[in-house]
Amino acid sequence: MRSFVYNGQPSRVVFGAGSLQYLEREVSLLGATRAIVLCTPEQQALAEEIAGRLGSKSAGVYPKAQMHVPVETANAAIAEAKRVGADCALAVGGGSTTGLGKAIALQSGLPILAVPTTYAGSEMTPIWGMTENGLKKTGRDARVLPRTVIYDPGLTVSLPVDLSVTSAMNAIAHAAEGLYAQDSNPVMDLMAEEGIRALAQAIPKIKADPADMHARGNALYGAWLCGTVLGNVGMALHHKLCHTLGGTLNLPHAQVHTVVLPHAISYNAAAAPDAMRRIERALQADDASLGLYKLAKDNGAPVALRDIGMKSEDIDRVVEIAVQNPYWNPRPVNPEAAGALRALLQRAWEGAPPAP
Ligand code: NAD
User: Fold this and answer.
1) 1 CA distance to ligand 1 middle (Å)
2) pLDDT per position as a tens digit, 274-295
3) Distance between CA atoms of residues 13 and 26, nearest Å
4) Ligand 1 centre from 274 Cα, in Å?
């Protein structure tokens, strides 16, 4: 048995269809009496309904969450939470909304109660992100880890099929990279493999019937496991490439993860054979990277960066940034790897299957 360090991260998870009914109890258990309900403009109706359920424990709805948490949005939300005397940030939505809750918690120490409606997994991590002048800053801080998470699969039924598939692939990416993390441990390996299995089984079922509650439950269960992996161990080349493509070129988050993942896994395959075996078992596939490519393609997800807004002339810029300041990776990422990375991105740009 290898040596490892395992850090349990304290959070309470309430899971199950209909679990939103426990919201008021969960707010009270946090010792809170005035929760500010955060959401994106698109999810305002849901947030209003949730605020209505809370009655006097609601400090109102703040419907201004945006992708990548612009610092101006964060500052305005912090000021609003203070103005209404909030003692809890209730984040209802995907990673963008949880991110706004984290910005408030980072500054004020307010506890976050998260109600995720995508599979992004931010609710299980102590990682915050904020964007200033087009540059995304990230950091880790125990204060931003949501204290309570209510996972109610019923709230994910409205997530459009295309976003459901790419959001699920985004979650799988956390687990896949967690399996070869430098600081991985046996508990995270179990969670990662089970998370990939649950999501891979759910994706075709959600595509066939977006209201399939059994599949929605399995996908959210997988998202919880994969998010936990993301919060516990370091990420590698795949996440570095996606942060560059998302942050520098402003490409859409979940779609970028979906396209890049099979290629990043192929790049690392020979250097991380144990991780590949686990991914293959979870996908019931002969080859991890091809299995991921097929899972995305067969379910109508984009497989080419050119189809989600990237220009071919940007490939060199992304390679340059990726080799300049790399994350730890099982196969070295250094200036000598620039040719291989360029080939990886060329295939991802064209939508070709990952290199064998
Ligand atoms: P998102 O939160 O931006 O949501 C995308 C869109 O889908 C929004 O318009 C949202 O309102 C809508 N939506 C969400 N759930 C819905 C539902 N059930 N029904 C209908 N519409 C719904 O997207 P995301 O992929 O969840 O999050 C992406 C962001 O989260 C990125 O900024 C990413 O960097 C961040 N993120 C952070 C972490 C972390 O640990 N800090 C982890 C994962 C993602």
Assistant:
1) 38
2) 999 999 999 999 999 999 999 9
3) 10
4) 31
